[in-house]
């Protein structure tokens, strides 16, 4: 056989082998789903990044992101086994423990909860404690029952008479300089700046002692017991996705975010990323030297104790059933930081 023909046959075989390997790899990928807690946004960016840049695929995963929203019930889908992972939080998982529901946090993407209180810039509110001087605090029901109780227990002057229900519009706050409203560090302040033309005072509860993790990777005990390798690969790939989203080219991830949530803008995305970096939402505390997603008993227990003190949880609750540290704090992805 002439050398040219041999070379052609060899190249064809190599190409066929590569195609077969790719097909086998695609067939072998584990299909998993991750339900978010709200509409697509930069605060979910690392997960979208891992889809967009092939990181999940590299880890042998075929991942579907199930978008949350006002009418979504992704936490219920996790409990019922309809999705594999959920963007939970320690309050939900400890509550699940008290109800005998085996939900487990396996990674903490946000080391700090982005919950903030927002005040007018010319109302004499210079530090967190000054918020107690205001006549009105616009808070959601969950905030009233949790962090507002924490505020009353840890700072002087906060009282129930300040509370008014927050209707997810900044209009009542903008109309009343003697008020503050709840918000998310990465979103409401940006919207207020756009609507009112001024930069509001922003107070991050996490920087004043309120300690819950946020934007968790939560799964079921059954998933951990039956597919620990899939859980580990999903955690690792998600962490790598977050490093790439923060420090690499996130263009394709942002396109996926805007596809899922057409109302999302480039300006809002850029603002959110900048604030997450500025305040150490993702990179602070244990994650600085152990990697994004790090989850520790010490941090988790601190939040549990805060909630026990204000009677949100029972002191006898075994909070350790709500999380495991075995999948994180390994320095995964840290070399990707640029």
From TrEMBL:
Q: Which residues cross the membrane?
A: none
Stored Pfam families: NMT1
The record's section on Gene3D superfamilies has:
Periplasmic binding protein-like II (3.40.190.10)
Origin, by domain of life?
Bacteria
Which UniProt keyword terms apply here? Signal
Q: Can you give the residue ranges of the SsuA/THI5-like domain?
A: 42-243
Q: Does the record's keyword annotation contain DNA-binding?
A: no
GO BP annotations of the record are:
thiamine biosynthetic process
Instruction: Write the signal peptide boundaries.
Output: 1-28
Coiled-coil segments: none
Xref: InterPro entries: NMT1/THI5, SsuA/THI5
Protein name from the UniProt record: ABC transporter substrate-binding protein
The species this protein was found in? Rhizobium pisi
